[in-house]
Amino acid sequence: MRLALYQPEIPQNTGTLIRLAACLGVPLDIIEPCGFIWNDKKLERAGMDYIELANVQRHSSYTAFRDALPHRLVLIDTKGEVPYCNFRFQPDDILMLGQESVGVPSSVFDDIPDRVVIPMQSGARSLNVAIAGAMVLSEALRQYS
Asked: Is the preceding peptide bond at 33 cis, omega within 30 degrees of 0?
């Protein structure tokens, strides 16, 4: 199981997800470009000393990421079709989160046939990306622990 961030924009969210990945022993893939400088103080503050403990791999593009890791991708997206609790995760899945402001472009969305959604109350747009990642990752790990 892996977690991937597509062109993250907010260093605090990335730092929080680095910390999550380190604590749960899950590799984290960062698909660049990022919307911040990698050594940003906000990233360091959110990731704390967990940045050194995390298994983080940075990829120069979505294509480079797909070439390096040809596993099944599961996109966590507000336009996903299957509620994440009803989805059958596999142990080598890569759970991918899009940009905080816009998700992923349609070319990436269309490339990933497995898309899950976190059901929300009427009128709510979305959760914070770090919270969404933690929720879906914990369910995926629960299915295989």
From this structure: yes
Strand partners, 59: 31
Query: How far apart (Å, rounded) are the C-alpha atoms in residues 108 and 125?
Result: 21
Enter the tokens of residue 117.
Answer: 């959604």
Domain with 101 in it: 2-142
CA-nearest of 92, 97, 106 to 130 is 97
Q: What is the mean pLDDT of each run of 10 residues along the chain (145 residues)?
A: 96 90 95 80 65 89 95 96 97 97 96 96 86 97 90
Q: Is the peptide bond before 105 cis (omega within 30 degrees of 0)?
A: no
CA distance to 7, 51, 107, 118, 132, per residue, from 78 (Å): 17, 28, 16, 7, 10
Question: What CATH number has the domain bearing residue 73?
Answer: 3.40.1280.10
Q: Is the dihedral of CA 37, 42, 47, 51 positive or negative?
A: positive
pTM for this structure? 0.92
Amino acid at position 118, single letter:
I
- Provide the token pair at 33: 């470009």
Say which amino acid occupies 133. G
